[in-house]
Amino acid sequence: MKRRVVVTGLGAITPIGNNVEAFWDGIKEGKVGIGPITRFDTSDYKVKLAAEVKEFVAKDYMDFKAARRMELFSQYAVAAALEAVKNAELDMEKEDAFRVGVVVGSGIGSLQATETAVKKMIEKGPSRVDPLLVPKMISNMAAGNISIATGARGKCTNVVTACATGTHCIGDAFRAIQYGDADVMIAGGTEGAICPVAVAGFTGLTALTTSTDPNRASIPFDKERSGFVMGEGAGVVILEELEHAKKRGAKILAEVAGYGATADAFHITSPVEDGSGAARAMKFAMDEAGIKPEEVDYINAHGTATHHNDLFETRAIRLAFGKAAEHVKVNSTKSMIGHLLGAAGAVEFIVCVKSIMEGFIHQTVGTQSCEEEMNLDYVIGKPYYGKVRVAMSNSLGFGGHNGTLLVKEYEA
Predict the structure, then answer these.
(1) pLDDT digit of tens for each residue in the chain (412 aa)?
(2) Which helix (H) or strand (E) holds 7?
(3) Is 302 tagged catalytic?
(4) Are 280 and 272 in contact (CB under 8 A)?
(5) Most buried residue among 82, 310, 368, 402 by CB atoms closer than 10 A?
(6) Residue 310 forms beta bridges with which residues?
(7) Do 164 and 398 touch, CB atoms closer than 8 A?
(8) With the CA atoms of 185, 186, 187 and 192 taken in that order, what torsion angle do they form, in degrees rounded to the nearest 10?
(9) How far apart are CA 252 and CA 288, in angstroms?
(10) Quick check: is 163 catalytic?
(11) How many C-beta atoms surround the C-beta of residue 186 within 10 A?
């Protein structure tokens, strides 16, 4: 029998707050964390805006010497993980460390480290490249550094599925607990790739908006949407087997009830046009949870503000939900924090948990009007206050990777 899995801890580093409390306050305020790029000179770039993390000082969150051996994506991950562990009141000295695992991924790892190394190699020769380049750069080091920082010695892996990374990491952690590989999992996603080559690459794909108005740049589902805003940060959660959580007296925030993962087998960047891949991931998650479409109160959509994603995801919701699509609340957290790439699904999962806890669904900030086919309830104009029993989080990644997590109010 599959074991029940609950959420007992949350941690976040985001463009609108460097802990869960500050982040959630920003969400409730409708705060937009988008602004001019400060990390490099954008004079030669069409794209001028990003959603940067502000005032993050790694030594405030972790050992200074350890932080120096980490790139930004790892620093964000460790900071969020330590907050989540503290939030869960998880005492590793009282745990079997081999039953506590980590699944935290990054879609990109560190392009900054690569940029710096290539420049140094060309200008000064290969012998001058940082000897720690590889362990700083590779995407699995977020999970590795979290393991070292927390003492977790169980299953330690990372899933890399572009913008679906965080969702698939939480999904894999959910499975690990369900089937007895672990009792506790530290899970989520992280990204810190706002740098010249990343912005140039995404601009070349015409995936990024060239808007210069922070309040009308990331506008998911809006008829004037023109691309996503690149963001950064980390979201990490503590998942725990129910009886283990009860035994140690943990505060249970919500229950993870279903997970669905599919592929579009269609295109390297565009979702399949009829939404069938994402729709099936949603159906798989609902089927596992024993939840009917009409029982889902809220969908935190992938909602990137690109033309294809928002239209095809809308079609996917209609395909998966049928008539129930008329009544479900749908929003996009990316309207406030941009697209956190590999961290997006994890941060948005945290929004789902908090929405259940507080009976609040944030508006899709900045979005004003939609074209004819975009006719779901995208929570435009003002937030929704009311009971949220079941929430769903969708992620769609380049390569056709679809992931859905279904989380619900915990009932004993």
Answers:
(1) 899 999 999 999 999 999 999 999 999 999 999 999 999 999 999 999 999 999 999 999 999 999 999 999 999 999 999 999 999 999 999 999 999 999 999 999 999 999 999 999 999 999 999 999 999 999 999 999 999 999 999 999 999 999 999 999 999 999 999 999 999 999 999 999 999 999 999 999 999 999 999 999 999 999 999 999 999 999 999 999 999 999 999 999 999 999 999 999 999 999 999 999 999 999 999 999 999 999 999 999 999 999 999 999 999 999 999 999 999 999 999 999 999 999 999 999 999 999 999 999 999 999 999 999 999 999 999 999 999 999 999 999 999 999 999 999 999 8
(2) strand 5-13
(3) yes
(4) no
(5) 402
(6) none
(7) no
(8) -160
(9) 21
(10) yes
(11) 34
Q: Which of 168, 244, 339, 362 is catalytic?
A: 339
**Annotated catalytic residue: which of 302, 352, 362, 370?**
302
Give every CB contact of residue 96 below 8 A, 6+ residues apart in sequence: 183
Q: Kindly state the helix (H) or strand (E) to which residue 365 belongs, with its residue range.
A: none
pTM of the shown model: 0.98
